[in-house]
Amino acid sequence: MKELPAGVFVLMIIPAVIVLAAVLYGVWALIEPHLFQVTERKLSPADKNTDFRKQSPSAIPSGKAPCLRLFFFTDLHAELCMVSSKRLISALRAAHEASPLDAVIFGGDICNDYQTSSKGLSYLKEISDVCSELNIPFYGVTGNHDLEFDPSDGKCHFMSLEGTRVELKSRSSGRPVILCGVDDSGRKDRVWYKVPSVPSDCVSVLICHNPDAVLHFGSGEHVDFMLSGHFHAGQLKMPFRLEFATLRTDILPHKKVVEGVFEYKGTTFFISRGLGCNALPVRFGAIPEASVVEIYD
């Protein structure tokens, strides 16, 4: 039998490898939404003079107690969320048993479509019931998919932080800690809402669905910390960051600020990968997460 020339053999192998890689990518993308990680995120004060940089965990002195301990989840997109409320509640209970939580926070995007929102509202109701049982306050904001919700009416089952603030007390120093939030206006004709005013002697934590808000603080507006989601860490990570070049108009992803803990001009902010999926029940390189967030003053 005549052997194929080496060049022809290579040309036959390359398409086969590409097809195999595409199949494996597709299979894993269908598996990954069913996975779930509970991450620990430690946020310390940011330098006011820094441009974007990832915050190092070593910035927190060893043995220092956190100011607040929060359980944060976002981007439920309940119709395409494969992480059950039972799994999230189990993680919440475990976090609270390890060390009491000061609050549970939801970062927006209850569902993909308001007409099919019952699953998302039921999910949040289960979280709210557990928070009531454990005597933990449950706060939240809405996201760009939630424009038809009015979180102030109680139907979202969390206490809305949009345009308002609540005061907690630092467990380490006793200083006042302000939790505040802003609404999301959606992607069309976007408006960046004013951050509620916070006294300068307080530690401030802003809950905002879209992390691009950190670029739009007005004159005199400042918060020490911000918790966000929205990007899903790209949801489907592709070579050359094509997921953001083709699917996103947001600014931060083009600065390689997609997930994790960052600093920018005196604000430390965390971007969560979120729980659910938008458009299709697929994820790649973006395992769903909820996070125990510790704030250090």
Helicity level, as a percent range? 10-25%
Tell me the strand order in the biggest sheet.
2-11-12-10-9-8-7
Number of strands: 13
Low-confidence stretches: none
SSE series: HEEEHEHEEEEEEHEEE
Give the oligomeric state: single chain
Distance between the termini: 75 Å
Main β-sheet: number of strands, strand sense, barrel status?
A: 7 strands, mixed
Shape: globular
- Computed CA radius of gyration, to the nearest angstrom: 21 Å
Q: What percentage of the residues does DSSP assign to strands (E)?
A: 15-25%
Count the DSSP helices: 4
Which structural category do the helix and sheet elements fall into?
A: alpha/beta
Average pLDDT rating: 90
Write structural notes for this entry.
43% of the residues are buried. This protein starts with 5 loop residues before the first helix and ends with a strand. With 297 residues, it is an alpha/beta fold. It contains 4 helices and 13 strands. A 7-stranded mixed beta sheet has the order 2-11-12-10-9-8-7, with no helix packed on it.
Helix-strand blueprint:
Elements: H1 6-31, E1 37-43, E2 53-54, E3 68-73, H2 85-98, E4 103-106, H3 118-134, E5 138-140, E6 159-160, E7 165-169, E8 176-181, E9 203-207, E10 225-228, H4 242-247, E11 260-264, E12 267-271, E13 289-295
Parallel strand pairs: 1-13, 3-4, 4-5, 5-6, 8-9, 9-10, 10-12
Antiparallel strand pairs: 2-11, 3-13, 7-8, 11-12
Helix pairs in contact: 2-3
